[in-house]
Design goal:
By secondary structure, this protein is an alpha/beta fold. Helix content is 39%, strand content 26%. The protein is built from eight helices and nine strands. The longest helix is centred in the N-terminal third of the chain and has 18 residues. The relative contact order is 0.19.
């Protein structure tokens, strides 16, 4: 059964390759958000996926807004990872329909006994956020919020009791805390929500979408994506359970 499925997948991929002339000679530039550790997972997944297709890729880190504008305009060939549905606002980007990563909205504080579940549980606290983390801004809308430009600044707010807790993408927060000299004072208090992340290509590469979809699907089904994510997260944060 497994041999039959492998043979079927190989034949299907070969047909896709034959349908996209010159695929093996392509080189793609993808944009991503700079200084965001969680993009390491998707970057490595895509490097492997495109390697299997014989395509070289380069990845350019930019500000969140600049990255999207560059890829949507066609100055870059696509986005490494974004949440579901951004094509509604960036119509030149085609969503590849296989999730390649996920981010978790996490709460950290100095109180190890504090256990929080869901956005509503934050309503009585003073909350710190990094400006531009859209899911956190939306989730805490109407609450007591203070924003910073960087994760280091956010951790200082929390350590100095200027906020009660912070809401961040788990990996980014965990890496920043691990690297901070006083990070041992901070604790994970809960995961609020999980967001799947997808690869996007500029519409000029529409013919490439079936091939990269098939390759990413195979990597998802055979466990390659999960294995890569676990190793990278463990290396970054010291925790392979997230």
């Amino acid at each position: 059964m497994m041999l039959h499925r492998l043979r079927y997948n190989c034949i299907g991929l070969l047909l896709l390759l034959l349908c996209v002339p010159g695929m093996a000679n392509q080189r793609l530039e993808l944009t991503t958000v700079a200084n965001s550790p969680d993009t390491s997972v998707s970057s490595d997944v895509l490097k492997e996926a495109y390697r299997r297709l014989g395509i070289d890729i380069s990845i350019r880190g930019l500000g969140a807004s600049e990255a999207l504008q560059r890829s949507n305009s066609g100055l870059a060939d696509g986005e490494v990872q974004r949440i579901d549905g951004i094509s509604r606002n960036f119509p030149n980007l085609i969503q590849v329909p296989i999730p390649i990563n996920y981010i978790q909205g996490a709460v950290f504080s100095k109180n190890s006994a504090l256990k929080l579940r869901g956005w509503y549980s934050l309503r009585t606290f003073k909350i710190g956020l990094v400006k531009g983390i859209i899911f956190a801004e939306k989730g805490t809308s109407g609450m007591q919020v203070q924003m910073t430009e960087t994760y280091d600044q956010l951790i200082e707010l929390l350590l100095n009791d200027q906020v009660d807790l912070i809401v961040v993408p788990y990996i980014n927060g965990a890496v920043a805390i691990r690297q901070h000299p006083q990070g041992g004072q901070l604790h994970l208090n809960g995961i609020l929500e999980t967001y799947l992340l997808y690869h996007y290509l500029h519409k000029t590469h529409e013919k490439l979408v079936p091939a990269i979809t098939s390759t990413l699907k195979s990597m998802l089904l055979d466990g390659a994506i999960t294995t890569m994510r676990s190793k990278i997260v463990s290396d970054l944060t010291g925790d392979s359970s997230q």
